[in-house]
Amino acid sequence: MASPFHLLLFFSFLSCLGNTFPVLGFHSNSVFFPVRKDAATLQYVAKISHGTPSGPTNLVIDLGGPFLWMDCDSGHVSSSNRLISSCSVNCSKAKFHDHGSKSAGGCLCNTDCNVFSYNGITGLTAMGELVEDIIAVDSVGRSEVGQIKTVDHFLFSCAPTFLLQGLASGSKGTLGLGKASLSLPSQFSSSIGHPQKFFLCLSSSDGVVLTGSGHPLFGTKITRSLVYAPLITKQHDYFINIQSIKINGKRLAVDKSMLLGDEEGKLGTKLSTIVPYTTVKSSIYAIFSKAYAKAADSMNMTRVAAVAPFELCFSSKGVENTILGPLVPEIDLILQSEMVKWRIQGRNSMVKVSNQVMCLGFLDGGLEQSSSIVIGGLQLEDNLLEFDVGSSMLGFSSSLLLKETTCSTIIQDTKRKQCI
User: Fold this and answer.
1) H-helix or E-strand containing 417?
2) Beta-ladder partners of 207
3) Tell me: the pLDDT tens digits for 21-57?
4) H or E segment to which residue 289 belongs
5) Distance between CA 365 and CA 184 in Å, rounded?
6) How far is Cα 261 from Cα 280, in angstroms, rounded to an integer?
7) pTM over 0.85, yes/no
8) pLDDT tens-digit readout, 346-385
9) Cβ-Cβ contacts under 8 Å for 415 (sequence gap 6 or more)
10) The organism sits in which domain of life (predicted)?
């Protein structure tokens, strides 16, 4: 349970941020939630405030999650929490996206709405009750001072306590950002009038989830510099199509069909906040790892013994440190054309495992991995990502270090300006 000091710090943080930005009126604002990385689990934890009285709750971000679920029994107790009927439209929406089997036959309208909540870390599912409550948000806009606002009728699932297994310590559930009618971005789009888009900016410390326009928080210079590629949604997960991969400018000898998947259910490249490092299907990883080791050798990097779970590890001795992290082979993910590429450099490719050793943060995902590639948390950090679900486009910045900033710096600068 959060201490009184931490509760005061949280609400002081929201208050400071709220005094930063003018707003147009609630129906055209952006709203955001602070995020931190849990050092023990490498999960990204968002803080929301909900209920009556309003209280903070930590939730692990699940980029592909269909809705928000939390343990309502051991967490914050709210007097405004209301159960949803099994025959309501909202219940039908939730059941359309849950991970359980659909019940046959009609429903009994005097019963509560039960939905399956899913823990993406452990793969466990459990039956929970669909409820609605008040959620407090910090608004950002352009013409009046930002304020903490409340949104009523926010829908989520109350799941059993055992479903918290595997989540970061202190977390009470997961925050679903997937393409589903009850995900957090979708609910804000329909209830507040936001565009069908959200921004994600993760780091090794402070980050943010933001719905609506990104200009007030990230600035027009950064948001207008984003490169866009088609965003593909399958069920409620987000995918991009990688046409080819280059290491230090040399294209890998990987058939495009291996990267894009096929019509038999094999999927292309998935974006995930659940896995800490990018995983690559074995058939592709064998080619990728061989090419990377060759490129590292050409740069006079010394390979050392593997450190689990990593396969490719190198001595840090003699490797130059730059603004983009250690100077190591560059990885380019080529999207719809050679002009559209997601470049991954040292900060987003290497993991420091000791003062002498660093390892490549790309893992062998095995032969049975359904997606060709799953881009994980390390590779997403300090990249501003715009998920424009309405237009089916993904905007990405590549490393913000190139713009001499980070996701954490943006958040810390905002707090410092307001709390001097």
Assistant:
1) helix 407-419
2) 35
3) 222 234 446 788 899 999 999 999 999 999 999 889 9
4) helix 282-298
5) 29
6) 13
7) yes
8) 999 999 999 999 999 999 999 989 899 999 999 999 999 9
9) 13, 16, 17
10) Eukaryota
The pLDDT tens digits of the residues spanning 66-124 come to 999 999 988 678 889 999 988 888 898 787 655 554 443 445 566 889 999 999 999 99
First-to-last alpha carbon distance for the chain, in angstroms, is: 29
- Cα–Cα distance for residue pair 207/405, rounded to 1 Å: 13
User: Quick one: tokens of 267?
Assistant: 């999927």
300 vs 27: CA distance, rounded Å: 56
Residue 156's closest CA among 236, 76, 94? 94
Q: How far apart are CA 313 and CA 328, in angstroms?
A: 12
Closest CA to 182 of 92, 55, 103, 85: 92
Q: 110: helix, coil or strand?
A: coil
Report CA-CA distances (Å) from 105 to 108, 111, 380.
Answer: 10, 15, 43
> Minimal CA–CA distance to 389: which of 229, 233, 176?
233
What letter represents residue 220's amino acid?
T
| Alpha-helix residue ranges (DSSP H) falling in 38-102 | 89-97
